[in-house]
Amino acid sequence: MLNLSRRQLFKRSLLASALSAMPSKLLAGTHQSLYIPPLMETRRGKPVFLTMEAVQHQLDEGKFVEVWGFNGHYLGPTIKIKKGDFAKLNYKNNLPQPIAMNIQGLQASGELLGGVGRYLQPKETWAPILPITQSASTCWYHSVSLANSAYQTYRGLVGMWIVEDDESRKLALPQKYGVNDIPLILQDMRLNSNGLQLFQQNQNALLGNRLFVNGQEAPYLKVPRGWVRLRIVNASLSRAYELRFDDDRTFQLIAQDQGFLPQGKELKSVFITPSERIEILVDLNGGDNVSLIAGEKRNFLHKVTALFADENELIENTVLELRPEGLASVFSKQEIRQFSTDAVQSLSNKVAQEQHFHFDTSTGMVNNKHFDPKRVLNAKLGTTERWILTSSSPMGFRIQGAKFIIESINDEPIDQAAISWKDSVWIPGKVQILVKFENTSSNNHPFIFGSSNLMLADKGCIRLLVVQ
């Protein structure tokens, strides 16, 4: 008979508890092939139908639960459109709550974007027609309902936009959607034993212990050998990620939010804040399987001990395992890509005025004031303003209907090779940006700016913006 001390028994009990708490497919080492959201291309005036509704989905394997999504799927389709075309959208709300939708990063007027000035009541439809005027970029759509955006986004009202232009189509970049141009929507969640999403309102943040990519946990994808392009949206409510590959290989960061960098930037890790989008290129011409991960590389024991170390730590930090197949590509030359952008030249724009905004992450106040829908910031169309952003603790920031370039972070100037048009940024303490206003909004259809942590935004850490 095996005699166990109390300490040994306690350790074994903890291990058994940890193993039972781990998702079954992770414990078994089985993974799903990555789900690729349907692609909807808006060509020849073809309308895009987006019906918001409750759907059945397995977040925990084998446990179908009710979540929200579009057109019968968890999450929404990827909408692809070209600069110069018109996007004919047709929203329908089949959910029990009023919903305000935003297309973060899309450059359009407040009236056409929707946002907090355009709620869809249950059973209501809305069909805006949006002219696409911006250069190639990756955007995303999600709920921005005042005081309820976090819950509605968390439930699954999320999707990606891809904007192309003539120049981007001619670039020697991977462009086969779902094959070598891969959409990745990151979300962290908490689930109960039945696989249902756990959500607590009126908190300053939500940090889940489960990481989902396109609605799946630690999926894999078979890809052709050669360069692969990953378009990544951080759709988490509060969590920022440090992404890297588990073999510590380099990759190229080529785009952020609203456009390309002047040239690809070789990195071994990249930081992405809530609401931010990045595009990276990774060379899979040689070698074996490789995984994109969030944080540091882990072994199985680390995953088990993570259950006890910190309740906010991710149980599994694999974003996606890439499994290259086929013959090596002849187009595998290692080179730094060059891109055309006017972002750097905008550093010399005339500054109309300078504004200071301080965000208190404990109270949700902006400049020591609680949110008031009657308090509106006014900006003049066609101007550029310098905004100095500070926060009581690190947080994400985003602006709707406008775009900016970063001048400095914590008073350290940004390398010009890293400058691109953005609408979301992490504030580690202080960030200085140049904001360009090219789209109109009104008191009835204002833009918003403030915390990209949607939990904090729902507590009022946002402001309304009118551009005329």
UniProtKB/TrEMBL annotation:
| A GO CC annotation given for this chain | cell division site
Q: What keywords tag this UniProt record?
A: Cell cycle, Cell division, Periplasm, Signal
Extract the InterPro entries matched here: Cu-oxidase-like_N, Cu-oxidase_fam, Cupredoxin, FtsP
Look up keyword Hydrolase and say if it applies.
no
Q: Which GO terms describe its molecular function?
A: copper ion binding
The residues covered by the Plastocyanin-like domain are 53-167
Output one GO BP term.
FtsZ-dependent cytokinesis
Q: What is its main location?
A: periplasm
N-terminal signal peptide:
1-28
Which locations, inside or outside the cell, does it occupy? Periplasm
Q: Keyword Glycosyltransferase on this protein?
A: no
Its job: Cell division protein that is required for growth during stress conditions. May be involved in protecting or stabilizing the divisomal assembly under conditions of stress.
User: What's the protein called, per UniProt?
Assistant: Cell division protein FtsP
What is the species listed in this Swiss-Prot or TrEMBL entry? Pasteurella dagmatis ATCC 43325
Lineage runs: Bacteria, Pseudomonadati, Pseudomonadota, Gammaproteobacteria, Pasteurellales
